[in-house]
Amino acid sequence: MPALLTVTGATRRFGGVYALRDVDLDVRAGETHAVIGPNGAGKSTLFKLIGGQLIATAGTIGYAGERIDRLAPHRRARRGIAIAFQDSPVFPNMTVAENVMVGAHAVTRAGPLAAVLRLPRHRREEAPIRDDAARALTRTGLAEWADRPADALPLGQQRALQVARALCGRPKLLLLDEPASGLRGPERSALAELIEQLRGEGLSILLVEHDVAFVARLADRVTVLDLGRVIASGPFKTVRANPAVIAAYLGGPQ
């Protein structure tokens, strides 16, 4: 399949310290691509370069045939890139459905702040956004929770809410930031089933994750970072046997 996202020579320097150096990565249409590595490897920096929260010191980022590395995050969102951050807030005074609706405003004129504050320009766009939110809730298995307070959700459902919020923007590429972190076994399994379902629907997914078993189950391909550089890339079975990966991250046969 053709590449939807292409990262070429991505470098990010903070002062004299390189967080990333000459990183190449691509995400093909309809695949799940995982990025793994030890703490400090540069995973979060790469994620933020793609999402637009950071700007690369050097290198390019292409999406759907267009360079996007100088675009603001909201412009990337309008082109079909959505992000579910691990620490995305759940707005406690809003229902689950209202929390999900905030995600659509990344791609509307009103914007997410207008949604949270319920400004008039938000209300003018509200009807079609409610329809998008209802579809996202159904896709993520949260439809029955729609009218409940969002902060009453268990952690597993809160992660599903973050995914639903991202889906409300109708993305083509979904960026997931350590979605399994802190989840118990059944919650991780339910989240993995959701990600598999979304991939089956044709959504492209870039997954940054520490849980190796979670990655092994989901990823079509894996890129491994260490000290800001790519040390291996390919199918998980190939990557896990790479001596450099074993030495830097896996620590032995998996």
Could you give a quick summary of the protein structure above?
The protein is α/β, with parallel strands linked by helices.
Please characterize this protein's 3D structure.
The protein is an alpha/beta fold and 254 residues long. The chain contains 11 helices and 10 strands. The strands form 2 sheets. It has a 6-stranded mixed β-sheet with strand order 6-7-8-3-9-10, with helices on both faces. It has a 4-stranded antiparallel β-sheet with strand order 2-1-4-5, with helices on one face. Strand 1 and strand 2 form a beta hairpin. Helix 3 packs across helix 6 and helix 3 runs parallel beside helix 7 (155-167). It is globular. The two termini are 29 Å apart.
Structural descriptors:
four-stranded antiparallel sheet, 254 residues, six-stranded mixed sheet, 38% helix, 10 strands, alpha/beta, 11 helices, single chain
Largest sheet: 6 strands, mixed
Report the mean per-residue pLDDT as an integer: 90
What oligomeric assembly is this protein in?
single chain
Query: What proportion of the residues form beta strands (DSSP E)?
Result: 15-25%
How much is the radius of gyration in Å?
A: 18 Å
Q: What's the shape?
A: globular
Secondary structure tally, helices: 11
Give the strand tally. Answer: 10
Helical amount: 25-40%
Distance between the termini: 29 Å
Record the strand order, biggest sheet: 6-7-8-3-9-10
Q: What order do the SSEs take from the amino end to the carboxyl end, as H and E?
A: EEEHEEHEHHHHHEHEHEEHH
Secondary-structure-derived class: alpha/beta
